Amino acid sequence: MSWFTKTxxxxxxxxxIMSITGLFLxxxxxxxxIGNLQLFYDDGGAAFNLYSYFMANNIVIRIMEIVLLLxxxxxxxxxxxxxxxNKAARPIEYAEVRPQENSTWSSRNMGLLGTVILVFLxxxxxxxFVPARFGGLEGVVIEGAEYENLYVRVVESFxxxxxxxxxxxxxxxxxxxxxxxxxxxxxxxxxDHKKYTPFIQMFGYAFSVIVCLGFAIIPLYFFFLY
Length: 226
Description:
Radius of gyration: 20 Å
Strand order of the largest sheet: 1-2
Helix content: over 70%
Transmembrane segments: 16-39, 59-80, 110-129, 160-179, 199-224
Protein name: Succinate dehydrogenase
Number of domains: 1
Order of helices and strands: HHHHHHEEHHH
CATH topology: 3 helical TM bundles of succinate and fumarate reductases
Shape: elongated
InterPro entries: Cytochrome_b-558, SQR/QFR_C/D
Keywords: Membrane, Transmembrane, Transmembrane helix
């Protein structure tokens, strides 16, 4: 297994892991957004609470949560290692640097964007995931059965202006992070060609904006219309 360890501990190997985990996390965003859209049903939160119950009690979903957590940890760890390696490789800056001429703002600030997203993720999990998985939510009766009322937690949380602000700013950071990361991931995996790279760029931009806008609309909807 020494070849495996050497390959994936190298700079290129870590970039491949970053790309694979990043694209995997993109698929999670789509599934998570589709689930969160249940919040817009005008049924007092019944659809969202049933969805939340299914996610919390389905064995396949619980296993995927572990895979997802490992994906996050690998992605974050490799990002830190690669950043340190890049700084160590060039400890002294060039006398004259114009990074804006050959790189985008998001590519130069992936560390900052990732940090903002990580801080938001910790707050978000503590506010929603922990109560949903380990108790602390009030109950609600749906079709004769009692479920935890995560919907009320969502509504109450999105009445707090600073939480809504953090959520929206995090989605802006995530959009910039994805815009660069989506194309970079395909390029690292060797899926880079003049024929389809423009489509990947366009699709990645559209994906990043639409998904993050979809998430950002949810807190704004509850804050201004509830």
